[in-house]
Amino acid sequence: MPKTLPWLAGGILLGAVFFLSVFLIKPIGVSTEFVITDGIIWNAVNPDIVIADEASKSGYSSPNAYLNSSDGKMAKAIENPVSYGMLFVASLMVGAFLSSLLKGDKPEGLQKSMPEVWASRFGESKMKRYVASFAAGFIVLFGARLAGGCTSGHMMSGIMQMSVSGFMFAAGAFAVGIPLAIILFNKKHDTE
Amino acid sequence: MTYALPIILGLLFGFALNRVGATNPQNIINMLRLRDTFLMKAIMLGIGIAAVLLFGGLMAGIVDPSHISIKKAYWGVLLGGALLGSGFAVAGYCPGTGLGAAMTGRKDAMFFVIGGLLGAFVYALIYGAIKDTALFDKVLGGAVTLADTGNEKSVTLMDGQWLGLVIGAAFIAIAAALPKRIL
């Protein structure tokens, strides 16, 4: 198997995994687990952030409006961290790691800190790249939570199910992502 | 609750993200700047194949419609998507690929994930203040689809499941026709 699959084989693999998920149980999603992880840490520091509550449909509630939304669904997941979503995301991480060991995509040298396209545009300062990545991560997950899903849950899972929200999300993401990437990285006169 | 399914599907998904090159930010950025669209072709083909299998399976009665899960459409989806798109362009990571990339030894992805944990936390803190704003006004009735999924918790804008097949096929056609390099 090559390091990176050509688009045809890669697309078939992605399509198979997304279909299989819905066929067997439910669509793929990732970004909720970022909040659940935050909640687990928060609850460890302040145990009052998730409380058992018989009046709530999930059996749990939270003084935080977000964790308490959808009948305390997230509060419940924080109190019971070995959930479907958490196992799925943990396994995603292991799966990517295993693939990289089995001759998959694995960074070498400077790529461990930044992609070449970044280095050729913004230089090889690692600190600059790390600060930018941190800020980008902040905005990406803030945005994903506002949208109620990310590239996996909204774009791929959403559009395959013909969900209007999936098309909306993709429209927003590419309407900003494409011009911004062109402005940031497409220098005049460069050919590579 | 069975542990086997999320573990198997998660392993497969993480493996697939790495194999299609999505955990490499070079590929994401080159896709967004329209320099090398192989990943865009793979993603569109993946969506198309999944849609054709899903709606074909629904029509044949071999996919359980209760497995369908449709997220609500509201204005925050568009704004949130735009915010995600901006960070996607800068870092070359999205939430799933960032986690996968961090595990392949990419340190910038680790900073992305830590930033993401903080961004999600700040969202949880301010949600109470914004939850009653127009950002959360439903669009087209909320949990709506373009084709009938047969799922009880969502509604469809158009009758019939054939449209799911047609749009899925269109995605496959666009994936095949999209030039590798546009700019």
If you had to describe this structure to a student in words, what would you say it looks like?
- The complex is a heterodimer of chains A (192) and B (183).
- In chain A, α2 (32-45) packs across α3 (65-79) and α7 (151-160) packs across α8 (164-185).
- The model of chain A has no long low-confidence stretch (mean pLDDT 95).
- Chain A has a domain at 31-106.
- Chain A is mainly alpha-helical and 192 residues long.
- The two termini of chain A are 26 Å apart.
- Chain A has 8 helices and 2 strands; from the N terminus they run ααββαααααα.
- The model of chain B has no long low-confidence stretch (mean pLDDT 97).
- A two-stranded parallel ribbon of chain B has the order 1-2.
- Chain B has 7 helices and 2 strands, in the order ααααααββα.
- With 183 residues, chain B is mostly helical.
- In chain B, 57% of the residues are buried.
- In chain B, α2 (25-32) packs across α4 (75-91), α3 packs antiparallel against α7 (162-177) and α5 packs antiparallel against α6 (107-130).
- Chains A and B meet through α1, α2, α3, α4 and α5 of A and α1, α2, α3, α4 and α5 of B.
Secondary-structure-based class of chain A equals mainly alpha
Structural shape of chain A: globular
Please bin the fraction of helical residues of chain A. Answer: 55-70%
Q: Report on the biggest sheet of chain A.
A: 2 strands, antiparallel
User: What oligomeric state do these chains adopt?
Assistant: heterodimer
Spatial arrangement of strands, main beta sheet of chain A: 1-2
Fraction of residues of chain B in helices? 55-70%
Largest interface: A-B, 125 and 126 residues
Low-confidence stretches of chain A: none
Number of helices of chain B: 7
Mean pLDDT level of chain B: 97
**Major sheet characteristics of chain B:** 2 strands, parallel
* Helix/strand order of chain A, N-terminal first: HHEEHHHHHH
Alpha-carbon distance between the two ends of chain A: 26 Å
